[in-house]
Amino acid sequence: MKIFLHENEEYLSDKGAQSDGRRLRRKNRCLQDMEQKELSACGIMYLPGVGPKKAEALRQEADIVSYEDMLYYFPYRYVDRSRFYRISEMDGSMPYIQLKGRITHFETAGELRSKRLTARFTDGSGVIELVWFKGLKYVTDKYKVGQEYIVFGKPTAFGRSYSIVHPDMDSPEDVRQVAGGLTPFYNTTERMKQMFLHSRAIRNLQYTLLTELNWTLPETLPARLLAQPGMLSRSEAMRHIHFPESNALLSQAQLRLKFDELFYIQLNILLTARIRQQKLKGLVCTRVGEFFHTFYGQHLPFNLTDAQKRVVREIRADMGSGRQMNRLLQGDVGSGKTLVAFLAMLIALDNGYQACIMAPTEILAQQHYATIRELLHDMDIRITLLTGSTKKRVRDDILPAIAAGDIRIIIGTHALLEDTVVFASLGLAVIDEQHRFGVAQRSRLWVKNKTVPHVLIMTATPIPRTLAMTLYGDLDVSVIDELPPGRKPVKTVHRFDNKRAALFAFLRDEIRRGRQVYVVYPLIEESEKLDFKNLEEGCKTFREAFPEYCVCMVHGRMKPQEKEAAMQQFASGQAQILVATTVIEVGVNIPNASVMVIESAERFGLSQLHQLRGRVGRGAEQSYCILVSSYKLSDETRKRLEIMVSSNDGFKIAEADLRLRGHGDLEGTQQSGYGLFLKIASLAADGQILQYARSMAERILDEDPQLQSPENAILRHRLKTLFDRKMSWGLIS
Prior knowledge:
Radius of gyration: 32 Å
Structural class: alpha/beta
Oligomer: single chain
Number of helices: 26
Largest sheet: 7 strands, mixed
Shape: globular
Strand order of the largest sheet: 6-7-4-3-2-5-8
């Protein structure tokens, strides 16, 4: 793309330059950059007003390295500056005020760091005080007594008088730039402010980029999409997102840029999925034979729910289709995902292949191993467990057996990815809690087979539909939305931490009835020492309150053997109370544990609270989750706890969590290979735009699967710019 400039374009001088010669060299470099390079390749240091030091601050603090990065640094809010007020109209309720008047005189007060500059400002209807604590000499050099200025800022009341600290001040000639309507405000860090890159400075740089330098922003959407109602051009959208002339135009600009962002994410996901289906042939597993029928007919511990039956049918169809299965299996804790995965593994075995389960922790791998060994009964299937703590002499026995195909089912952790682990013929890889594995790690399973195995991904974290369409949009999705028969919903209550006596009395009653209790304390990295102190003090408190019972403790700093010993003490029933950190969020299945006490519940997110609650309710008895918090709670935290008390539906809770907290950094997206860093769209608020973007992407790919038509050349170019990778991680589940 070329950027075109008027020959007589006025150059906006860089205040940081020390000489006319230096400014001229900077100007020439800026113009040369813009004439020869694409917008994304123009270095931000050459934008008038930036320079090397500010460019480095922008790179480190805001990830801005080019002109295009600057354009995509969007405002976080807008203030209406279309109206000028009179000083006589001011009252204490105004968040911002805009005035036009003159400075009558300056005055300094204080010494050294406490020194401040004040100015009396009048518009004829009254007088206010302007105050500066920094840049005093700059202010007195720049602003002159008697000249007219536009003043904008937050007024502070002192009795009947008002002042504005560090106001924005502009010449009336700049009214179109600063007071044309909605004024943007930009996020800045402390370091940016120290470099004079505050919101106003960012606004000025955007104004320079959009107005002073006359270039053409290339379009990223084909004509058919631009023809849709309300769709602005990219150039119009960019100008109105930074300097909107009205609320209507701001809304149209936001719609266009949100659609653009979500559309290309969906187009990339769908295109990757179609390429995978075409290029990656799967192992054909059409036979449902002796292993499957023996287990289903003789050893099935309970009848499958309708949801489990539906998912098994979907998996059977995938594995027999001749294409590689990539399926995401969602289901709440205790919904029976492991049983469904085991049935899929038996299909792989019936067709002469091996199967493996890869779990994120040793505790969970051991849990899977114990569960599947119990399910196998006396069936002639050899199974093994391989983790980081597996002793060398045991490894020396099992690794050759795996390579020879004698061991048919392998359960393990990251240890399965080691080069020494060679499969004879891996037919199915089950990955539990995929977001805990990096995409590069998962890819190593692929190179262990000549033909890629079928992949089944299990997660107990309910994923809202809009999030699933983005994080896992290239996978087929199955949902187990029924609990096994006989399970009672967990009763959840909220209690304040000053009601300990009643809580302990309830726990003692449950323990007398033969039940066990989890007590979970938060562990937040930023306050790790304090959290461990709270955990240890909490454990001491419970031991003092329940001297007649055994209380054990588990946390992440313990050695694996110590942790395992404590968990086994609880699992065997020797300990009645387990005090732990969130290390038990995914952990051992203990049906006898009927109470989950979550201390400092206000410090947990909704999804994590729901995961922890899923540790109880595994048996036929009524189970309880008690959320303990301090009395002082924010409105958002109170809503979060109310949602937990009112609902056991993991998907409703996940949707509420997304609405309350936003998509954040999209847990796992950096690992998914798509590198999703949404700059303007919100998966919580823009579900309809996302759905529309996906439907348009599907329609285009249905008509032109390879995007080969001339009209779609613009899509190919943009996809390459946004998602070009040395390795196509999208082909990895």
